[in-house]
Hints:
Bound molecules: S-adenosylmethionine
Number of strands: 9
Number of domains: 1
Number of helices: 6
Distance between the termini: 35 Å
Structural class: alpha/beta
CATH architecture: 3-Layer(aba) Sandwich
Strand order of the largest sheet: 5-4-3-6-7-8-9
Largest sheet: 7 strands, mixed
Helix content: 10-25%
Radius of gyration: 16 Å
Order of helices and strands: HHEEHEHEHEEHEEE
CATH class: Alpha Beta
Amino acid sequence: xxxxxxxxxxxxxxxxxxxxxxxxxxxxxxxxxxxxxxxxxxxxxxxxxxxxxxxxxxxxxxxxxxxxxxxxxxxxxxxxxxxxxxxxxxxxxxxxxxxxxxxxxxxxxxxxxxxxxxxxxxxxxxxxxxxxxxxxxxxxxxxxxxxxxxxxxxxxxxxxxxxxxxxxxxxxxxxxxxxxxxxxxxxxxxxxxxxxxxxxxxxxxxxxxxxx
Length: 212
Ligand code: SAM
């Protein structure tokens, strides 16, 4: 998986590659899909949600530029896989999921794998996790219409926000954003993606002004 799907597509950060080698992806997929755990695509995890494609997880974490002192907010816990890979790279990981059943299962899974330093919360991740802020990186595995204001407020100086943004046309682009010296967000596009919607107060607004 790492050499064929990640290195071959340009993932270079040795720490990200090592973390992707370390976390047992087969422990994060439903029993009946274990044979496909390392396939080059997302997989269903129940509740109409997915565990993201390995390449996308690596791409997002490389863009987040985590280091061993970093505090991370992972929005959209899902199976807990991206939270576990983040924990291999960072100091503290707070992961938030809106579907209680997924959050509970992920928290149990992460505990059983020894990721005691990951805090799993149930709630609307578009509001961030103010009681755990500031974060050096905020990483979302669900597509919004724009960057939620709470994330900007909860970002540490020089922090990075990585998320998919959905345009009015329905196309999605993965972006990384930082706050520039003038306090404005500086965004860089990382390419087209396809994610489930970010559902919440500051999430995807389809069919409303400013959204699809
Ligand atoms: N990172 C996950 C993994 O490694 O398995 C995959 C996440 S899945 C693609 C996206 C997740 O985002 C879903 O579990 C969904 O319920 C969650 N989600 C969507 N909107 C959310 C919100 N506002 N707050 C928290 N979680 C949200």
